Amino acid sequence: MCGIAGVYGVQNAERLVAEILFATQHRGQESCGIATRNARGNVIAHKAMGLVKNVLTEDILSYYSGEISIGHVRYPTSASSNIDNAQPFAIDLAEGPHMAVCTNGSIVNYEQLRSYLEKEAGFTFLSDNDSELMGRLIAYYHVVNHIPIEEALPKALGQIHGAYAALLILRDKMFAFRDPYGIRPMVMGHLVGNVREEQLSDGTVFASEGCGFGIIGAREIRKVAPGEILCLQKGEPVRTIAKAPKTPLRHCVFELIYFSRPDSMTFDERVWDVRREIGAALAKKDRDELVGDDLVVIPVPDSSNFVAQGYAEASGLPFGMGLLRNHYVGRTFINPTQRSRDEGVRQKFNPLPDYFPGKRVILVDDSIVRGTSLRKLVRMIKGAGAKEVHVRVGSPPVVSPCYYGIDTPVPEELIANNLSVPGIAKYMDADSLKYMDIEDFHEILSNHQDYCFACFNGDYVIKPADFESNPTISTDF
Questions:
Q1: For a pLDDT cut of 90, what percent of the chain falls above it?
Q2: How much is the average pLDDT of 287-310?
Q3: pLDDT higher than threshold 50 for residue 199
Q4: Is 252 a catalytic residue?
Q5: How many CA atoms does the CB half-sphere of 290 hold within 13 Å?
Q6: What mean pLDDT do residues 200-210 have?
Q7: Fewest C-beta in 10 Å: which of 70, 76, 328, 362?
Q8: CA–CA separation, 429 and 391 (whole Å)
Q9: How many C-beta neighbours within 10 Å does residue 243 have?
Q10: Strands (E), 1-88
Q11: Which residues pair with 158 in a beta bridge?
Q12: Which residues is 350 bridged to in the sheet?
């Protein structure tokens, strides 16, 4: 799970991309980068480990100036944590450096495609990330086989199975495209001006989420449709060059539960409102069970704030911010190692002094994956004086790994596969524990059939085993 951004057709596009990336920093904090088509027509890229504000400095943005730019913030999933796997990935074509790509998601048949390109086409890979594979596969069809890009791109994407929302710069064009299942989000907007000194009424923008559009003077128009390939070219309107055959949709429900910023519209849903409804559904499970003047509803900030608010509103219990969050510590779920997640909890949260003594706490979190982080929080709150801690979780138990871009561990490491609900409560030292049910989302999401719940029920639309016996790709040119 990463964040992407793109701006086409305005001066200093790279600066607008940097601002969108800053607004979507919550989607990835390990590394970031930009790629820009400069005045000489070359596509140049800069990427480094670290946060947007530290990597995309004034000097960097000045050097990487142009009218076409894409950018990326990374959270590592399958590939290792190093600079080689940062994005965007620039690829030299036969006539020069004219191509760059960035993507959010995960290619399920990555190993099969890479093996074919290495053995049959002679490609050498410099990283383990999806954007390089995607770029080299597109180059394979477009350059090696001399197919126009408008034909090569659909052919290449037809070989890729998995989750992707991606942006591609090729010479003076930009392309935006999503997988046919619509697993990862991407929205499109237009610059409307009047926010800066420059008149930026022209230009098209893309992002994983629209939460950064307002700060650059852009208005969200629509989402990039699942399976759609959009082409942007100077002097021409945005056009759809291909659409994948109609496929059952599988939007990632975890985008609404955790990843998306509350002020975003993701999959046509107001994220903050969905989270409030999740909280209300949790409160219904406790009707007449948790009562008393000493109860307080507390979120694990920040992703659970609106869930806890919804619980408090539906139950009539008071809402409190008993845990203080250090906002200079990143999101602990997306830290790449257990050690960094544990350190993140200690550094990130602190109980409000003198707040908890004598209280019974309903602690609301968005999910439980391994259980170690929440265990530390429960003990922290009890150590601060709380009489009881009742944990309420805004998602069902996580029982299966994600193959579509979320770093969930192997099944054996998922706590819900090793302990019963009472067993998990005992492990965390919680006085009670309740989860959401998948059926609860059927009432919250009117189009619930269009969502992926695979991490909760193991019902995958595609999985790596589907491709183990099919290592080749189509050579029908």
A1: 80
A2: 94
A3: no
A4: no
A5: 30
A6: 82
A7: 328
A8: 10
A9: 13
A10: 3-8, 31-37, 43-49, 68-74
A11: none
A12: 324
CATH 3.60.20.10 in the chain is located at 3-250
Tell the burial category of 19 from Cβ atoms under 10 Å away from its Cβ (0-12, 13-18, 19+): buried
Boundaries of CATH 3.40.50.2020 in the chain?
A: 270-447
**Is the previous residue joined to 88 through a cis bond, with omega within 30 degrees of 0?**
yes
Reported as a pLDDT band with limits 50, 70 and 90, residue 345 is confident
Of 2, 32, 211, 455, the catalytic one is 2
CATH of 270-447, one of 3.40.50.720, 3.40.50.2020, 3.10.110.10, 3.20.20.10: 3.40.50.2020
Q: How many other β-carbons are positioned within 10 Å of the β-carbon of residue 371?
A: 18
d(CA 334, CA 341): 8
- Among 107, 182, 184, CA closest to 138: 107
Return the residue matching tokens 């790449």.
336
The neighbouring-strand residues paired with 188 are 206, 222
Residue 203 buriedness (CB in 10 A; 0-12 / 13-18 / 19+): buried
pLDDT at site 197: 41
Instruction: Kindly report the number of other CB atoms within 10 A of residue 458's CB atom.
Output: 12
Tokens standing for residue 3: 């964040």
Give the distance, in angstroms, between the CA of residue 335 and the centroid of all CA atoms in the same chain.
Answer: 13
Three-class secondary structure of residue 341 per DSSP: helix
pLDDT-derived band at 319 (thresholds 50, 70, 90) equals very high
Fold classification of 3-250 is: Glutamine Phosphoribosylpyrophosphate, subunit 1, domain 1 (3.60.20)
For 43-61, the pLDDT digits (tens) are: 999 999 999 999 999 999 9
d(CA 441, CA 319): 23
What is the sign, positive or negative, of the torsion defined by CA atoms of 258, 263, 266, 271? positive
Mean pLDDT, range 33-50, rounded to an integer = 96
Q: What is the mean pLDDT of residues 271-284?
A: 98
Residue indicated by tokens 């009472």: 422
pLDDT of residue 390: 98
Cα separation, 203 vs 195, in Å, equals 14
Residue 78: burial class (beta carbons within 10 Å; 0-12, 13-18, 19+): middle
